[in-house]
Amino acid sequence: MKKIWSISLLIAVLFSCAPSDEELFQAGVDRIESGNYNDAIDYFDRAIEKNPDHTAARNAKGVAYFNMEQYDEAIAAFNSSIQIDSTSYKPFFNRGNAYLEKGEFTKAIIDYNYANSLDPQQVDIYYNRGVALLAMEEYEDAILDFDMTLQANQTHAQAYFNKGKAELGNNMPMAALESLNYAVEHDNRNGAAFYLLGVTEMSALGKTEEGCANLKISLSLGYTDAKEWLDEFCGE
What we know:
Blueprint: H1 2-17, H2 21-33, H3 37-50, H4 55-67, H5 71-84, H6 89-101, H7 105-118, H8 123-135, H9 139-152, H10 157-169, H11 173-186, H12 191-205, H13 208-220, H14 226-233
């Protein structure tokens, strides 16, 4: 009888020492933050095994796959999170990001739209949707999304840059110049922004001196497309 009691006690101790689903989930999050994505996935799988309805673990598993550029696996993980709980914007937003990386822009926009309907306060949704719209040459809608981004964050250099690209695509060179000037003001390492700024100054305003100066900065930052313009128009 004493032997049976001892075995029962041992089993109880072992179970009490086993990590909970939340502890496993947090361990996975810690591994993502340290860049150990495969280990993170293992922890998330263990959390899901303990609690199949752990939607945050399913979503985070997708994030780990996304960070490894395994986008199809990421989408599958986000799908599983959405199937259990479709009220959180996060898996829709994250799945949209995976579609964006795959170049499936229409699917990305559908997910961004739904994520936005669930939480309109998330600024990243507007920015990423703007990037997808820009890729589809839907310039006016892209500009609106970049404007929403900039209302929330007036120093978002990439939003200014991409807004400038959309404005150029929409035949708005003066507006583009303003956006590109803000872009380089907030990020003076963006060679592509200096390039577009220089080209637009020269082609829209005939400002050769200013344009060449910006093209030289662009080339110095490693943006090699600037060399052709410098050779042809700036006597380089």
